[in-house]
Design brief:
CATH architecture of chain A: Orthogonal Bundle
CATH class of chain A: Mainly Alpha
Distance between the termini of chain B: 40 Å
Strand content of chain B: under 5%
Number of domains of chain A: 1
Largest sheet of chain A: none
CATH superfamily of chain A: MetI-like
Distance between the termini of chain A: 62 Å
Order of helices and strands of chain B: HHHHHHHHHHH
Oligomer: heterodimer
Helix content of chain A: over 70%
Shape of chain A: globular
Radius of gyration of chain A: 23 Å
Order of helices and strands of chain A: HHHHHHHHH
Chain lengths: 280, 296
């Protein structure tokens, strides 16, 4: 009791909590990993979450926008079909879609392992960790990575494609595109202009999607037993480990805020109008 | 009374416009069909919570069990599905409703009070916006004792985390409406700012608020399913929702959930169709209310 400071009054505990927080100390875990500091527990889990979130965000952004733009150019029945398909895929609850994928691809046809993140005999490895990189571990990881990745990826792909299709159609209708067409610009050139303007609102969407994605990863990680912060949070909620719950929530918030900051900086790179400095 | 009549007149006008739109018609009819399943279903199906040990784990299309039964308990999956739809819709309407209410309050209060109130409203919106929904709900529901987690409470918690983007868009709508002539006229004629908001600004935003409600409703149902899957939604033993069906199936110690596809695939299919229908309905409304989009 003394170790956790439960013998002091609530007010005192609260003040100590803030003092420790400002020093970067989130306390120690109570039930899940008794005695381990929350910072080290959460810190060891963040890379696994990022490993899942970052590829999903980047690849779905690139591919989704490409599909959306193409769908807008071709028009007609096929375009509408892509629209409905992407709306539908964006409405899939990713965690449930993950369960279905497990049933189809892991239980029915043994293509991917249904659960976990690494075969036990192989040493754990992160994508970007060069010191432990080796082909066996990489391929092994890839097999485990596929299902959670696909279940999040398909959902977000649909979201980007829907948005981009609407934006490009809107841009293709605008004055400068008509003018460029009237001047006899090549089709590729015109399309690249439209695309460049249509991508801007998509970049703003990146912020919202990052928030949603990090939230959904919590559930998907639990379904697949992926050892990220989300699963840690779930485990600690189940075992009522309050300091870990709080610590991981704080870390998730920090990841979101830092992510948003990076996206804002990127937005300055793609849109010259909002660059800070007021040179314009 | 007069205010009520104004809103009613607005609503009737909106409805006749909407029902002429194809997208809205398609989406709305799918939602109605699923809602009917949830409203009538529980009355004609057997009790979804009673145990039938002798009928455990029957596959779908067995006599008397359209979608089979659950594994150790032998409950009818179709009956669970109907009750689940009902409870999930309840969460959606309640969560969406409360969320819309908060969004309207925060979104209109800021521009109309100005000064510190506006700053506080903006600050709160930005803070809550950064909360990732599922982790926040996980923490909130975990803070409530297990016995207290009713459908009502979960819907309220969802509403508390889902309103910020809606508040922000409503705020910008209010800001643009505020500068219109008819509002200036009302101001000149000496109306108080409260009645300006209630009688001039809000009736003109009815269409937009309805759209916000529809989206928040879909979001609330999805969020409920997500946190129920983690077991922190309404208590899964007493409240059957689409999400708690998934949870009961997944946390099932007897039969491996991965084999019993007829237990967890139907709730997801229903939810996906429902959410897609809501989205199609929403974009139909968008086309009607936003003349710019009508041609696309």
């Amino acid at each position: 009791m003394k170790y956790y400071g439960f013998d002091k009054s609530p007010l005192e505990q609260y003040i100590t909590f803030w003092q420790n927080l400002l020093r970067g100390d989130l306390g120690v875990s109570i039930s899940l990993f008794p005695g381990n500091s929350v910072v080290s527990i959460v810190g060891s889990r963040i890379p696994y979450t990022l490993e899942l979130v970052i590829p999903v965000l980047i690849i779905s952004f690139l591919l989704g926008n490409w599909i959306g733009a193409k769908a807008a150019y071709i028009g007609g029945k096929l375009s509408n079909f892509i629209y409905f398909l992407s709306v539908f895929s964006n409405r899939l609850p990713s965690f449930w879609f993950g369960m279905v994928l497990v049933y189809l691809l892991a239980i029915r046809f043994h293509i991917f392992p249904p659960y976990g993140y690494q075969t036990l005999e192989i040493r754990p490895m992160l994508w970007w960790d060069i010191s432990t990189w080796n082909p066996t571990a990489f391929l092994d990881k890839l097999r485990y990575f596929c299902l959670p990745f696909i279940s999040l990826f398909i959902v977000y792909l649909g979201g980007w494609a829907t948005g981009m299709r609407a934006m490009v159609i809107h841009e293709l209708d605008s004055g400068y595109i008509r003018y460029a067409e009237a001047l006899g610009f090549r089709k590729n050139k015109v399309q690249s202009y439209a695309q460049r303007n249509a991508i801007l609102p998509q970049f703003t969407g990146l912020n919202l999607y990052l928030n949603a994605l990090i939230g959904e990863t919590t559930v998907v990680e639990t379904v697949f037993g992926w050892p990220g912060v989300g699963r840690l949070m779930y485990q600690s909620v189940v075992s009522q480990d309050y300091s870990v719950i709080f610590g991981s929530f704080l870390v998730v918030m920090i990841v979101v805020v830092v992510g948003n900051f990076i996206i804002d900086v990127l937005y300055g790179l793609v849109d010259p109008r909002i660059r800070i400095g007021g040179r314009a | 009374m007069k205010i009520g009549r104004e809103y009613f007149k607005q609503a009737a006008g909106i409805w006749s416009l909407l029902i002429a739109n194809l997208k809205f018609k398609i989406g709305f009819s799918i939602v109605v069909v699923i809602a009917l399943l949830g409203i009538i279903g529980p009355f004609v199906t057997p009790d979804p919570l009673t145990y039938h040990w002798d009928e455990s784990g029957l596959p779908p299309l067995t006599l008397g069990h359209l979608l089979g039964t659950t594994a150790p308990w032998g409950q009818d999956v179709f009956a669970q599905l109907c009750t689940g739809i009902r409870n999930s819709l309840f969460v959606g309407i309640l969560g969406g409703g409360i969320g819309t209410l908060i969004a309207v309050l925060v979104g209109t209060l800021g521009p109309y009070k100005g000064g510190i109130a506006d700053d506080i409203a903006n600050f709160t919106t930005n803070i809550v916006m950064v909360f990732p929904v599922y982790p926040a709900l996980l923490v909130l529901s975990a803070a409530v004792p297990k016995e207290g987690r009713s459908v009502l409470l979960v819907a309220t918690l969802i509403a508390l985390t889902s309103w910020p983007w809606a508040a922000r868009t409503i705020r910008s709508q209010v800001l643009s409406l505020k500068e219109r002539e008819f509002v200036n006229l009302a101001k000149l004629s000496g109306m108080s700012s409260r009645s300006i908001v209630l009688r001039e600004v809000l009736p003109n935003m009815m269409a937009y608020v309805t759209m916000v409600f529809v989206l928040l409703m879909g979001g609330a149902m999805l969020a409920e399913t997500g946190i129920s899957l983690l077991g922190v939604g309404p208590i899964p033993q007493f409240h059957i929702t689409l999400g708690s069906m998934l949870y009961n199936c997944m946390s099932n110690p007897v039969a491996s959930w991965r084999e019993m596809w007829w237990w967890y695939i139907p709730p997801g299919v229903v939810l996906t169709i429902l959410l897609s229908a809501i989205f199609v309905m929403h974009s139909g409304m968008d086309e009607v209310f936003n003349p710019k989009l009508r041609r696309v």
